[in-house]
């Protein structure tokens, strides 16, 4: 079985990492088992690291390192050339996710971000909610 190659937005990754018994626990298990290969670029990884430093999460340096250690070894690195033609998006912070999905020819962009979901018809890559993404995976 070929693993699903997905671009995961930062909020989806955070939910999987910060809430190990939450609604996205399945995603963390999926990348650990190789059912899903998360795709990441320099820009999206930098964004994840930046967000993990937000005071509202109250993470110590060791906790941040542990969380990254449970994600970074599983992703496939994608180099995004410039420029990449993507649909116009409202939030400039969404561009790297769209560019990476197109460049890597990802199987899907998994997000709950309404700005990204609004672009579903304009992007050649499926944009899926986490619930819909889960339904696409083979049952064990």
Walk me through the structure:
This protein is α/β, with parallel strands linked by helices and 140 residues long. The chain is built from seven helices and five strands. The chain has helices spanning 10-18, 25-33, 42-52, 61-69, 95-104, 114-117, 130-136, and strands at residues 4-8, 36-40, 76-77, 108-110, 127-128. The protein has a five-stranded parallel sheet with strand order 3-2-1-4-5, with helices on both faces. Helix 6 links the parallel strand 4 and strand 5 (127-128). Helix 1 (10-18) packs across helix 2 (25-33). The protein is globular and about 40 Å long.
Low-confidence stretches: none
Q: Compute the separation of the termini in Å.
A: 12 Å
Mean pLDDT: 93
Radius of gyration: 14 Å
Q: Beta fraction of the residues?
A: 5-15%
- Specify the biggest β-sheet: 5 strands, parallel
Please give a quick description of this structure.
This protein has 140 residues and is of the alpha/beta class. It has seven helices and five strands; from the N terminus they run βααβααβαβαβα.
Indicate the topology.
Blueprint: E1 4-8, H1 10-18, H2 25-33, E2 36-40, H3 42-52, H4 61-69, E3 76-77, H5 95-104, E4 108-110, H6 114-117, E5 127-128, H7 130-136
Parallel strand pairs: 1-2, 1-4, 2-3, 4-5
Helix pairs in contact: 1-2
Main attributes of the structure:
140 residues; globular; alpha/beta; 5 strands; five-stranded parallel β-sheet; 12% strand
């Amino acid at each position: 079985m070929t693993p699903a190659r997905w671009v995961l937005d930062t909020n989806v990754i955070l939910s999987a990492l910060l809430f190990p018994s939450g609604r996205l626990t399945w995603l963390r298990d999926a990348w650990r088992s190789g059912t899903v290969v998360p795709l990441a670029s320099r820009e999206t990884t930098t964004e994840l690291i930046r967000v993990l430093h937000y005071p509202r999460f109250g993470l110590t340096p060791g906790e941040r390192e542990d969380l990254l250690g449970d994600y970074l070894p599983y992703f496939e690195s994608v180099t995004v050339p410039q420029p990449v033609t993507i649909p116009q998006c409202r939030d400039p912070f969404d561009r790297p996710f769209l560019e990476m999905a197109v460049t890597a020819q990802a199987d899907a962009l998994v997000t709950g971000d309404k700005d990204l979901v609004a672009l579903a018809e304009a992007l050649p890559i499926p944009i899926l909610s986490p619930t819909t993404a889960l339904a696409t995976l083979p049952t064990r």
